[in-house]
Amino acid sequence: MNFGIAGRKAIVCASSRGLGYGCALALAQEGCEVVINGRDETRLAAAADEIAKASGAIIIPVAADVATPDGQKALFAACPEPDILVNNNAGPPMRDFRELSREQIIDGVVANMVVAIELIQKAIDPMMAKKFGRIVNITSATVKAPLAGLDLSSGARAGLTAFLAGVARSVAASNVTINFILPGSFDTDRLVSNIEGNAKRQNVSFEQARTNRINGVPAKRFGTKEEFGATCAFLCSQQAGYITGQNILIDGGVYPAAF
């Protein structure tokens, strides 16, 4: 299927690795010009080279912390009027809610809710003027099924979801969509870190902790960044213009419900 977005300009946050990388690669393979972002300049440059070689697309690396005004300014200097915006940010580490300071709570809400809203504020009016815009927010399966220890991550991302639910409806007539992808267990560096933490807490080997995690997934495997990116690219496609305000759960069947 031709997604009809060749030549479109995209910004993909936190895309030097992991799920953001998968989204950037998929959009580039559809012919988009993609601004990728990360804070590690060396890793970002390598990612830009890899994606450019794999897709033949124009890839613009912007080394910046998008949580800061300067970082956001740098992103939009590289792409003043994106057609596509993919919001992505690492969540706070697992921690008992009793241990969270006010500063840590505020930082978590800023990183996983406020930053995405600020970026959308900058992108949405040009999208509406052009009558085309696709905004995808990468949140988490824990928005739908919260886990103790990830309360701050779940709460901030659930707040973003509720905040944007009304916004999505208000811009739909301009062919601007806002959707959410909720990843479960995907084979990324973050998952490895989580499994290492679980192994220590459970006093088992990494391999045993990994096997335990896989056994909890009906698909009996972890997701890949390529299939995650393909879902993101479809939500950004011309054909997905009638899908907005939706939470797309990708978890290999973990969430045990029909609705």
Can you put this structure into words, describing what you see?
The chain is an alpha/beta fold. The chain folds into 2 domains: 9-184 and 224-250, 3-Layer(aba) Sandwich (Rossmann fold); 185-222, no CATH class. The protein contains 8 helices and 7 strands; from the N terminus they run βαβαβαβαβαβαααβ. The chain has helices spanning 18-29, 41-55, 69-78, 102-130, 151-171, 189-202, 206-215, 225-235; strands at 9-12, 33-38, 59-63, 84-87, 133-138, 176-183, 247-250. Strands 3-2-1-4-5-6-7 form a 7-stranded parallel β-sheet, sandwiched between helices. α2 links the parallel β2 and β3 (59-63). It is globular, with a radius of gyration of 18 Å. The model has no long low-confidence stretch (mean pLDDT 95).
- Please compute the radius of gyration using only Cα atoms: 18 Å
Largest sheet: 7 strands, parallel
What is the string of SSEs from the N terminus onward? EHEHEHEHEHEHHHE
Oligomer: single chain
Number of helical regions: 8
The computed structural class is: alpha/beta
Question: In what order do the strands lie side by side in the largest sheet?
Answer: 3-2-1-4-5-6-7
* N- and C-termini, Cα separation: 28 Å
Please name the CATH architecture of the largest domain. 3-Layer(aba) Sandwich
User: Which word captures the global form?
Assistant: globular
Percentage of β-strand residues: 5-15%
Quantity of strands, as a count? 7
CATH topology of the largest domain: Rossmann fold
- Total domain count: 2
- CATH classification, class level of the largest domain: Alpha Beta
Mean pLDDT, all residues:
95
**Name given to the CATH homologous superfamily of the largest domain:** NAD(P)-binding Rossmann-like Domain
Low-confidence runs: none
The percent range for helix content is 40-55%
